[in-house]
Amino acid sequence: MALKVGDKAPLFTLHASDTSEVSLSDYSGKNVVVLFFPLAFTGTCTEELCTMRDALTEFNGMNTDVVAISVDSPFTLAKFKESENLNFPLLSDFNKEVSRQYGSLYDTFVFAMEGVSKRSAFVVDAAGVIRYAEVLESAGDLPNFAAVKETLSTL
């Protein structure tokens, strides 16, 4: 079932690239951009997360934190975070439960890989309500960061 604006964001707890546990509830009282991305070390994913890295100060200035989720292992995400100097948590949804809850999971991806996160962007407000939801079918497309910022500017 696809999540839509106005829905309560499904809560989650996942392991970050440093193996610590990170929960959506950790961000209670703040806005959070929840990004899903297919796979670490791929071209469009690197472009997306580096774009967010470079704009993080602007997002933080809007009382907003960012987390990015993929089905990669925490160890793969640690190498990816280090290689790209990413400055926000990368979370492992290795068991695909959170991607499924958010309607952000391909049945079949490239090379017949099953259960890879779809590129998606959600804005969750300080009360845990989804204020923006974008789930992309094409992994080659980037989220509409301008629309994400526009949504945040109204919160």
Automatic annotation (TrEMBL):
<dbReference type="InterPro" id="IPR050455">
    <property type="entry name" value="Tpx_Peroxidase_subfamily"/>
</dbReference>
<dbReference type="GO" id="GO:0016209">
    <property type="term" value="F:antioxidant activity"/>
</dbReference>
<dbReference type="InterPro" id="IPR036249">
    <property type="entry name" value="Thioredoxin-like_sf"/>
</dbReference>
<keyword id="KW-0676">Redox-active center</keyword>
<keyword id="KW-0560">Oxidoreductase</keyword>
<protein>
    <submittedName>
        <fullName>Redoxin domain-containing protein</fullName>
    </submittedName>
</protein>
<feature type="active site" description="Cysteine sulfenic acid (-SOH) intermediate; for peroxidase activity">
    <location>
        <position position="45"/>
    </location>
</feature>
<dbReference type="InterPro" id="IPR024706">
    <property type="entry name" value="Peroxiredoxin_AhpC-typ"/>
</dbReference>
<dbReference type="InterPro" id="IPR013766">
    <property type="entry name" value="Thioredoxin_domain"/>
</dbReference>
<dbReference type="GO" id="GO:0016491">
    <property type="term" value="F:oxidoreductase activity"/>
</dbReference>
<dbReference type="Pfam" id="PF00578">
    <property type="entry name" value="AhpC-TSA"/>
</dbReference>
<dbReference type="InterPro" id="IPR000866">
    <property type="entry name" value="AhpC/TSA"/>
</dbReference>
<feature type="domain" description="Thioredoxin">
    <location>
        <begin position="3"/>
        <end position="155"/>
    </location>
</feature>
